[in-house]
Structure formats: C-alpha cells, structure tokens
Write a structure and sequence with these properties.
The complex is a heterotrimer of chains A (212), B (248) and C (645). With 212 residues, chain A is mainly α. Chain A has one domain. In chain A, 74% of the residues lie in helices and 0% in strands. Chain C has 17 helices and 20 strands. The chains are: A mainly alpha (212), B alpha+beta (248), C alpha/beta (645). Bound molecules: flavin-adenine dinucleotide, protoporphyrin IX containing FE (HEM) (2 copies), iron/sulfur cluster, FE3-S4 cluster and FE2/S2 (inorganic) cluster. The site of one protoporphyrin IX containing FE has 25 residues of chain A, from helix 1, helix 3, helix 4 and helix 6.
C-alpha cells in the first residue's frame, strides 16, 4: 500500500508540474506532451518512456487498489458488529477516518472519467491526440462547468487522501519518532496542498477564461 | 444525579444482543463509573434480574481488565483514564450514556460487556518475550543501558493490555498493543537477539487472530489510557520491514 | 489456655531448615534435597494455582525445567493478577550504592521489621535470593529505573537506612509481573504449561493423604472439571478483601487457601494484617475499593489535623498554631516517616478523638504546601505529578492547592497457609507460595518486600524444594471416579446448587460490606478482647443469615459474577471468624496486630515475647479451630522493643 502510494504521489507531482505548461501556451504544452512521446527516438520506439511510465503507473495503481481492497475487507471482518453510538474521531489523523475510503472511491471514478476525457478523448470534444492543450482548454470551457466542478470535487477528495496518505506511507515505511512524525505530517499537509492547488489552478483558469 | 443508560445486553456468546435502557437515580458524583454500575446491579438483583456483567479487577487503572465503550469512546471521555478511574463528576445530571463492549472480531463478546481478549496473549506467545530461563542471568549491572533507552522502554512497557486501542481503531487493528511490546523489548540490549523473529512471529499471530490492518489513523493512541504513542507503531513497522527483508 | 473459641493442639515444628550457620542453610538444603532426572520430569504433572508474581514465576520455571504444568487464574489473562498493582519497588541486597547494605543487613532489617514473629532461616534465604531476582528480571527486559551512567537506580523505601529498593517508576509490580508473564507465555507456546484463564479453583483433592488435584469451575461456561497431578502449588495471593474495602483488587479472595484449610492445611497467623497509612479515604457507601497513594509521599508531605475538634474550615484558613502535626509531635526522631503500622494507628487515634477531616471525619491532611514552598511546584510535580493526578481523578480536589486527605486502609495480609522451609504445607504435595503463605514477614511486612518474596518463592525456592517431593513420583494415577475426586466435585456442585436455589432476598455484596465493617471495626487497627468477642458473635450471626438469605441470580452454565462472589464471601465469613479468634488469643501487641490491652504507658505497642514468640498455626475443626504453636527462636537477631521516638 505504502510503496504503491508513494509511487502514485511521485507521479502526481510530476503530472501536476507538467500540467503547468498550460500557462506557457499551446506550443509549449504540446511540445512537452510530444517530447514525452518522442523521448529517446529514434533509438527507442515511439512512446517508450510514456509506456514505461504507464506500465509502472498501472502496476502501482493495481497494487494500490488491490491492497486497499484487502485492507478494507480485513477491517470489515475485524469489526463485524458496529458500535451503536459514534463519537467524532480524536486521533492524529482524524480526518482520515472519515475521508480515506470514500475519497478514494471518488478519486477512482474521477480517474476513469479523466482517462476517457484527456487520454482517450472519448468524452472530450478535441479528438486530436497531439493537441493536449486544446483538449484541456476544451474540457474546462465555461459551458462545461460541471466538468470543472467534478474535477474540483475530486481534487478535494484527493487532498484528504494525500494529506493522510503521505505521512501514513512514511510511518509505514520508515517509522519516524515523535518529532519526525509531526514533521512528516506537516510535510504531507504541505505537499497535499501544493499538489491539489497546482492541479486546481488549471481548470479554474480555463473556466474563468484566463487561459483560452 | 439522574442518568439514562443504554447498555448492551447479551446473555452469552451465541445469543443476539441489544441495547437496553435503564434509568438510574441518586448517582453520587464521587462514585467511579464502575461503582455506578455496581449500584445499578444491586438494584437489578433486588428486582430478580440478571445484573450487567463487565470485566474489572484492580479498579485503579493498572490491571487492564475494565473495558467499556462509553458513548462510542473506549474508556470514556476523559483522556489517559481507564473506565475504572473515570468518575461520575465528569457527567451531568440528566445525561444519556451508551455503554457497549469492545467491538472486534478478535475479541468476541462472552456476555454483556465482557469480551474475550485471549488473542493478545497469543500475540505475546508468538514472541513477545526475551528468552531468559530462570537462573541463567548475568549480574544485573553486566550491561549498562542508557537512561533515555530505559525510560523509553518503560513508557512502551506501560501498556496494560486493555485492548482499547483495538476497540478504537476503525480497522480493528492491534498494532498499538503489539508495537508497545516490540518497542519495549527492542529498545533494550537484552531484546536484540530475538528482535527479528519476535516481530515476524507477533505480526503473524496478530493477523491470524483476525485483527485488521493499520492505516495509521491514530485513533488507538488517542484512546490509550497509558498514552502509548504512534511512534511504537513506527518502530514495529521498521523492525518488521528489516526482519521481512532478512527473512526473504 | 483454651477458651470456648478454640482448642489447643500439639505443637508443630519446621523440620526442613538445616541446622548450622544461617548463611549456609539454604545451600545445604539445596544440596540435601533430592533431584528429579530430566527424563522423569516430563512424567510429572504440577498444578500451579495463581499467575501473580509467585505463581507465574513458579509455573514458568517449572515449565523450563521440563515438568508438565497446569496453571490457573480467575482473570481473563494471567497478566492481570493483582501483583500488577504494586507501586513502590522491590528490595535486594545488591549494595550497588556502597552504603553498607549486605545480605545480613537485609535479613536483620526484615526480622526486626516483622517484629520478631518470623523465622530466621526463611528470612535469611529471602535476603540471599534477593540479588538473583534482580539479575533474573533485568535479563527478562524489566525496564527498571536507571541513572545517567546506565546503571540501575535505587531508592530508600519505608524508612530503610540504605537504598536497596529497585523500581520502575510507580509501576514496579506491573513490570515485574509482565516479565514473569512473558516467561510464562513462552512456556505456553513451548507446550510445557497449560494455562487456564477464567478458571477458579473451588476444591482441593486429597488422595491417601496427599494433595493430588483440584476442582475448578470454568467461569465462562460454568463447567466443573477436575485437574489431577503429582503436586499442587497455591499461589493465590492475599485475603485483605475480607475487609470488603482494601487496596486489593476486587477479585482477591481466600477461597483456594480456605478450601485447603478445610481439608486439613494449617492457616497461620490469620490476624496479621497490614494497614497502610496513605490511602485515599472512603467517599461514600457506593465505594468498592480503596486506592493506595505511594508511601513515598510521606518523604515530603507533612501530616496534620486541626487542633479543634470538628473544625470544618478550609485547610488553608486554619492557622499554623491551630494545626496538630501529630506524627512530628509524637515521634520526633522519625516524624512523618514512622513505619506503616505506627502511622496508621496514630491517624486512627486522632480521628477517633474527633479531629479527622473530610466525610465522616475519617481522614487526615497530607500537606505539600511546605514542600512546594521549599522545592518549588515544578520539583514537586516532577516527583509526584502522576500521584497527584490520580488523587485529583478520584477525589476531584487539586492537591497542589488543598492538602490531600488520607486515611489508613487494609493493604496486605501477613498471615496465610502454614508452610515449612520447603514451602510445603502440612498436607504432603500441597505447596504454598507468595502472599498466600504466611512465611517471611512475621507480624509486619516492610515496604518492597512482598514482591521480593513472591519472586524468590517462585523463581528460586519452590523449583528447588519441590523436586525433593517429586523425586518419589510419579505417583499412582488417580482415576476420575476415585471417591475423593467424586466427593470433592460433589461438594462443589452442591454449593453451587445451594446458592442458585436459595430463595433469598439479600445481595452477596450487602453481606460482604457488613462483614467488612465488622472486621474493620473490631479486627482492624486496634483490637480489644471485648471487641473481638463481640465480632465473633456478630460474624456468626451474619454467617447464619448469609446461608438463609443470600440471593444469587442466573444459572451455573454461564458467566455468573454473582455466583463467583457468593462462594468467595462464604469463605470470607469463615475466615473472618478465625481471624478474630486468632487476634483474640494473641493478647500481645505485635506488628500489624495492636491489642489495646497490651500497650506501654505512652500508648505504644507492647510485645510479649515470653508468651507469644510463636507462629499460631490453626487447624480446621468443625466445632472449634485447633491451635498448633510453632516456637520461634532467634539466634542472630535478638528481640528488642521497636522504638521510633
Ligand atoms: C496497591 C498495592 C501496592 C503494593 N505495592 C507493593 C510494593 O511496592 N512492593 C511490594 O513488595 N509489595 C507491594 N504490594 C504487595 C504485593 O503486590 C503482593 O503481596 C504480591 O504481589 C502478591 O503476589 P502473589 O503472586 O502472591 O499474589 P497475586 O498477585 O494476588 O496473585 C494471585 C493469583 O491467584 C489467582 N487466584 C486466586 N484465587 C484463585 C482461585 N480460587 N482459583 C484460581 N486462581 C486463583 C489469581 O487469579 C492470581 O493470578 C502491594 C500490594 C497492593 C495491593
Ligand atoms: C484508485 C484510486 C485510489 C484508491 C481506491 C485508493 C485507496 C486507498 C486506501 C484504501 C488507502 C488506505 C488508507 C486508509 O484506508 O485510510 C490508501 C492509502 C494511500 N493512498 Fe490511495 N487510493 C487511490 C488513489 C491514490 C492516489 C492517486 C494516490 C497518490 C497520488 C494515493 C496515495 C496513497 C497513499 C500515499 C496512501 C498511504 C499508504 C499507507 O498508509 O501506507 N492513493 N489509498
Ligand atoms: C485537474 C487537473 C488535471 C489536468 C489538467 C490533467 C491533465 C491531463 C492530461 C492532459 C493528460 C493526458 C496526457 C497525455 O496523454 O499526454 C492526463 C493524463 C492522466 N492524468 Fe491527468 N490531469 C489532471 C489531474 C489529474 C489527477 C488529479 C490525476 C490522478 C488522481 C490524474 C491522473 C492522470 C492519469 C493517470 C493520466 C494518464 C497518464 C498516461 O496517459 O500515461 N490527472 N492528465
Ligand atoms: S496500547 Fe494502550 S490501549 Fe492498547 S492495550 Fe496497551 S494500554 Fe490498552
Ligand atoms: S487506530 Fe488503527 S489504523 Fe493504525 S494507527 Fe491505530 S492501529
Ligand atoms: S479495573 Fe484494572 S484497569 Fe480498570
């Protein structure tokens, strides 16, 4: 869980940074997307880097989802009878209790939509694959505001997922002492904020016409 | 003061249980929570009813027997306090209080509020010790231990094995209990030779017993009456990772 | 001098302790005792009842040696035995402080502290073994307090002049017990020990004069079963709960010991009870137990009461010259640090005179104002912070601002089943260890010595002495349908059937509470002939009423906590009577037993060595108990009157 989570986080950071090319304009953004695909050519076949990344990503996602299912099933079995009365969580990662699992489900649905939208373009008006910029601008165009809202909602869920996930992964892998645990929690919070805001700025800018 | 209680009643392990309401009057605020239940039980016996069964022994916060979930919180609302040390002055006249047993598949209910926590003993059997047969010990001063290590080991060893961590954990995980023992023994030089086998054995026993996996939500530490911190879970994870790699 | 209450019997002697220089006796005995060869140990089964320090250490060690052990406790886990609650520490003659300690000094202090009512040979062995206990526990990983250099820390405890007490914050008993518990669980995993938790021993099985088994009730299912073996060890703890309110855990009881007593085991010095001076006073009728505040508080707290009777002003409003610092006044040399028995009785005296504070006038102040002024609040907090927090949780009062209220409470029972030097009772094959036996502490136990005794018995003494007995085994197998087995089971069944069938109207607790009041009033801190005689009458009629009116709900085939309590209280009622008889017959004052008739002019305890230098070993008798005396001889520590003026 933790290792796959960390890989996903790394991907997200890179992805988020890549998305910011949008602000440089169509040429740069598409060049970046093109660059990813033609990396190493002609020595390596077309899209090799992308496929290496994709396979890594798919593997990480598969492991991640599989462990999530295992953990959730174990948790359900470990508490077959629920409490009749509930109290708000009190622990160090109290928001995680309420948000991790349904948040993950939202993120999961989001990713499916997102792939259909921006990778396969099934639901995107711009079918021209090299034109990533066009696709992004089209999908978040003001008339399609529900898409933007859905993206933002997913990012909100992702924020909670990351805020807990990042320090949780560190706790699982390296087991920091109290001082470092507090620091990791702060770092997790900061990274979650940066990543999510970094993502959010794109649809918001497009929807409000700052990028067109 | 006057209270309305809702208490989990379940005649035995097989039977269906349910929450049953009781009104209780003239509760002294100097009484402990368990003494309040004693008073209720005396009344129930007088009325020919079966008194409410609950585990308790020392009534001073050290044996780890008492185990009530009060309004959804293991050991009730007061931090760092076992149920037996919780006093009624923490409640107000007219309060409605829900009382339930620890809920975990690994801790099946035996009767009413009494659960079977023998899974914890099985975790200890799987490695939660230092093998030092009687009579084989060198002089106690043979190995000095830095004070900080001894103090940290003590803080982890202060776990009373109550199981509130499991009761509080959304995943029903016993990581805090297990981590406390792994940290205690792992911090001492005597504990080193068996450090790897210990953690592998204990984790296997933990999973076999049906406890859930930890997702670091930290509810356990918040409920722990002995304030065992999440760093013991970190230590356990670290030892486990090293031991697993070594064993592989 | 038989009275109506008891008959005189033959004297008893402890024949097992070798003669010769005291420092060589234990070595000699170990050498003369027969051994069991390792291959035979597997064929020998030993029952150990109890998983406290005394029981867990014995069961683990016997398991390690290769015997087949069956171990029992009534709690849901063996880790919860009442030893877990000990706070202060454990003594050992390590002399790590170079302050003049030695085995001989620990021996000397303990014999004197016991007010010359214990056996020299036993106490010396205890002092010798004490050092090995610390080594053993450290090897197990017990996190004792350490100094910055990494070596073990010691403190002085209970007024001792040397620092020989090892401790683990305020939770020494817990850490020692966890060490023994883990050793025990290791043996459970290894298959040498069968551990049965939530099982209560209700009867002893004696076949051909030898202890051969026990009858137990599974507290979850109610199933009654028999465990048969070659020897039985009782490590079932103290019986302070006969007073209802005590510092003991709710489940502490005398049933195992009392059942053995009824089958012929002698009960020695039952009236020797330790009353601890610094406990939190009772707050009301609902109270179920009393909580000990560590004795160490007296190092910095000053004890006082208002001079004016019934003065109910806020303590801060009572000026200095209207306060009576009675310990400092009466015992200028020791002041607030006088031994437990003296401090307890002094508190009772001032409260009886009407100077007590708090509910019912049963309390005295333990004041830290001077210490806070002298050392600063920070320093006081560092030393006693968790005790202060505990006090506040229980009483709702803040001890930094208002002096604590304390009152004495029953804490430890020096009496118990009679054992010889080998820890064997007078029934062959029945051994008794820890607080359940009477040995080593005489009439008064010093702080930090019960843990020492429990572990000494379990780790080092019993495993060595029991082999001498087992060398004759394995004994002929006892069939389940042997008449002794059947009779023991029937006795258990009948008693349970009686309780469940009785058409009563009073709860078990109401009887227990009433018994406790009688015991506390007449057989508590101060005892008189008149009071004890009255108490015996009261207990007899209460016992009578108990069997007529007790009401137990539910059935046997379930977890039935009322049924458990009923059996325990039935035995307490009989024990209480014997305690009063013992206290009545011992018309001297000694240690924890203060007879008002035997005091010096200034109100101090007066021992009577000419007439009472013996152990009173009581044999059960249907009509009246029979007194067997074991004379005590003092070769190395000459009896003197204790003085703390
Ligand atoms: C609050 C407190 C503080 C103390 N502090 C100190 C201290 O600082 N230093 C010190 O030296 N001493 C101290 N003592 C005394 C000391 O803790 C005890 O005397 C000692 O631990 C007793 O150990 P034990 O093994 O004999 O009995 P226990 O620990 O009481 O164990 C008794 C065992 O017998 C079992 N049992 C009993 N009856 C039955 C039955 N019928 N069937 C089956 N099982 C049964 C129980 O389940 C339990 O496992 C303190 C005592 C108290 C109460
Ligand atoms: C398909 C969508 C996803 C699902 C179903 C999912 C599910 C989960 C679940 C169930 C957990 C366990 C934590 C808990 O329950 O409290 C978890 C943890 C975690 N997730 Fe995800 N997640 C998803 C996507 C992601 C993404 C996209 C990332 C990173 C960018 C991520 C990073 C993490 C991290 C770092 C952890 C913590 C691991 C640990 O506790 O050891 N997850 N996830
Ligand atoms: C909201 C801002 C986001 C924008 C503008 C955005 C944009 C894009 C674009 C343009 C692509 C296609 C790249 C290409 O094929 O060249 C893409 C792919 C992808 N995005 Fe996003 N994305 C956003 C957020 C997210 C989030 C939050 C996640 C995960 C939780 C995510 C996961 C993915 C994945 C898995 C792919 C497929 C990668 C691949 O093709 O290899 N994206 N995204
Ligand atoms: S870790 Fe805390 S909550 Fe868990 S068993 Fe130990 S003391 Fe109880
Ligand atoms: S609450 Fe449960 S999820 Fe882990 S951090 Fe504690 S065991
Ligand atoms: S009863 Fe022992 S901890 Fe609560």
């Amino acid at each position: 869980m933790a290792v796959s989570g960390v890989l996903l986080v790394l991907f997200l950071i890179v992805h988020m940074a890549g998305n910011l090319h949008v602000f440089e304009g169509r040429e740069e953004m598409n060049a970046y997307a093109h660059g990813l695909r033609t990396f190493g050519e002609p020595l390596l076949p077309h899209e090799s880097l992308l496929w290496v990344l994709r396979i890594g990503l798919i593997a990480a996602a598969a492991v991640h989802i599989w462990s999530a299912v295992v953990l959730t099933r174990r948790a359900l079995a470990a508490r077959p009878v629920r409490y009749a009365s509930k109290k708000p969580a009190k622990g160090e990662s109290r928001h995680a209790v309420a948000t991790m699992r349904w948040g993950a489900a939202v993120v999961f649905l989001f990713i499916i939509w997102h792939l259909l939208d921006l990778t396969f373009r099934t639901v995107n008006p711009v079918k021209d694959v090299p034109d990533a910029y066009g696709a992004v601008v089209a999908t978040f165009s003001p008339e399609r505001w529900p898409v933007t809202v859905f993206y933002l909602l997913a990012l909100f869920a992702l924020y909670f997922h990351l805020r807990h996930g990042i320090w949780s992964a560190v706790q699982t892998i390296s087991g920091p002492d109290t001082k470092w645990r507090k620091r990791t929690q702060a770092i997790g919070l900061a990274v979650a904020l940066i990543v999510v805001l970094g993502f959010a700025i794109v649809p918001i800018s497009v929807t409000f016409g700052l990028v067109s | 003061m006057k209270l309305s209680l809702r208490i989990w009643r379940q005649p035995d392990a097989q039977a269906e249980g349910k929450m049953v309401s009781y009104e209780i009057d003239e509760v002294s605020e100097d009484a402990s929570f368990l003494e309040m239940l004693d008073v209720l039980n005396e009344r129930l016996i007088g009325e020919g009813e079966d008194p409410v069964a609950f585990d308790h022994d020392c009534r001073e916060g050290i044996c780890g027997a008492c185990s009530l979930v009060i309004d959804g919180q293991p050991h009730g609302p007061q931090a760092a306090t076992t149920t037996c040390q919780l006093h009624m002055r923490k409640f107000k006249d007219g309060d409605k209080i829900d009382i339930e047993p620890w809920r975990a598949g690994a801790f099946p209910v035996i009767k009413d509020l009494v659960v079977d926590r023998s899974a914890f003993d099985r975790i200890i059997q799987a490695g939660g010790y230092i093998s030092a047969p009687t009579g084989t010990a060198p002089d106690a001063h043979a190995v000095p231990i830095p004070k900080q290590d001894a103090d940290a080991a003590f803080s982890a060893a202060a776990c009373i094995g109550c199981g509130a961590c499991v009761a509080a954990c959304p995943n029903g995980s016993g990581m805090l209990f297990m981590g406390a023992k792994v940290a205690h023994l792992g911090l001492m030089p005597q504990g080193q030779p068996e450090r790897h086998t210990r953690v592998l054995g204990m984790v296997a026993a933990h999973d076999d017993a049906g406890f859930g996996g930890c997702t670091n939500t930290g509810e356990c530490a918040a409920a722990c009456p002995k304030e065992i911190g999440l760093d013991v879970i970190g230590k356990l994870n670290r030892d486990f990772r090293k031991a697993a790699i070594r064993a592989a | 001098m038989s009275t109506d209450f008891y008959r005189d019997g033959e004297p008893v002697a402890d024949a097992k302790a070798p003669a010769g220089p005291i420092a060589e006796r234990w070595e000699k005995r170990r050498f003369s005792g027969r051994l069991v060869n390792p291959a035979n140990r597997r064929k020998l089964r030993v029952i150990v009842v109890g998983t406290g320090l005394a029981g867990a250490s014995a069961a683990a060690t016997l398991g390690e040696l290769g015997y087949r052990v069956a171990n029992y406790c009534f709690q849901d886990s063996s880790r919860r035995a009442h030893s877990i609650a000990a706070q202060g520490g454990i003594n050992a003659a390590k002399n790590y402080r170079n302050d003049g300690d030695s085995v001989h000094r620990l021996f000397y202090d303990t014999v004197k502290g016991g007010d010359f009512r214990s056996r020299e040979s036993n106490v010396h062995r205890l002092a010798e073994v004490s050092t090995e206990i610390i080594d053993q526990c450290v090897a197990q990983g017990v996190p004792f307090a350490r100094e910055y250099g990494g070596l073990l820390d010691n403190r002085s405890f209970g007024g001792a002049q040397v620092s020989r007490t090892f401790y683990a914050r305020g939770q020494t008993g817990q850490q020692l017990l966890l060490g023994a518990y883990q050793a025990l669980q290791r043996q459970v995993a290894a298959g040498t020990v069968d551990l049965h938790t939530r099982h209560e021993m209700l009867e002893l099985v004696i076949v051909d004069g030898k202890a051969r088994g026990i009858v137990v009730r599974d507290l979850v299912t109610g199933e009654i079963s028999t465990e048969l073996a070659d020897a039985v060890v009782l490590a079932t703890g103290g019986y302070g709960n006969v007073y209802f309110l005590s510092t003991n855990a709710m489940g502490c009881n005398v049933t195992a010991g009392w059942r053995a007593h009824r089958k012929g085991a002698y009960f020695a010095n039952p009236c020797y009870t330790q009353i601890h001076p610094t406990c939190i006073p009772q707050s009301g009728e609902h109270q179920s137990k009393l909580t000990l505040m560590s004795e160490s508080l007296r190092n910095d707290g000053r004890v006082w009461v208002p001079k004016k009777k019934g003065d109910d002003r806020h303590p801060a409003d009572i000026p200095e010259d209207e306060r009576d610092y009675y310990l400092e006044r009466r015992y200028p040399a020791f002041g607030n640090l006088v031994p437990r028995d003296i401090a307890s009785r002094a508190a009772k005296v001032v409260c009886d005179e009407g100077h007590g504070v708090g509910p019912g006038g049963l309390g005295v102040y333990l004041d830290f104002a001077a210490a806070i002024e002298r050392l600063g609040r920070k320093a006081v907090e560092a030393k006693y912070g968790n005790l202060f927090d505990m006090y506040e949780r229980i009483t709702g009062e803040n001890p930094y601002e208002r002096p604590m209220r304390i009152y004495p409470a029953v804490h430890y029972t020096m009496g118990g089943l009679w054992v010889d030097y080998d820890l064997s009772s007078n029934i062959p094959g029945l051994f008794v260890t820890g607080e359940a036996n009477f040995s080593d502490h005489g009439a008064n136990r010093l702080g930090a010595s019960a843990l020492m005794q429990g572990l000494s018995d379990g780790y080092f003494v019993l495993p060595n002495t029991i082999s001498d007995y087992l060398a004759d085994g394995p004994f002929e197998a006892v069939p389940e349908d042997h008449e002794a087995v059947v009779a023991a089971r029937r006795a258990v069944d009948d008693r349970i059937a009686f309780f469940l069938g009785n058409d009563g109207d009073r709860t078990v607790d109401s009887f227990h509470r009433e018994l406790g009041k009688i015991m506390w009033e007449y057989c508590g801190m101060e005892r008189t002939e008149e009071g004890l005689t009255k108490a015996i009458g009261l207990i007899r009629s209460l016992k009578d009423e108990f069997w007529r009116r007790v009401k137990v709900t539910g059935k046997n085939e379930q977890l039935n906590q009322e049924l458990e309590k009923a059996g325990r209280v039935a035995d307490f009622l009989e024990l209480g009577e014997l305690m009063c008889i013992d206290a009545l017959h011992r018309s001297e004052s000694c240690g924890g037993h203060f007879r008002a008739e035997s005091q010096t002019e200034d109100g101090e305890a007066k021992r009577d060595d000419a007439n009472f230098s013996y152990v009173a070993a009581w044999e059960y008798g249907e009509d009246a108990p029979v007194l067997h005396k074991e004379a005590l001889e003092f070769e190395y520590v000459k009896p003197t009157q204790r003085s703390y003026k």
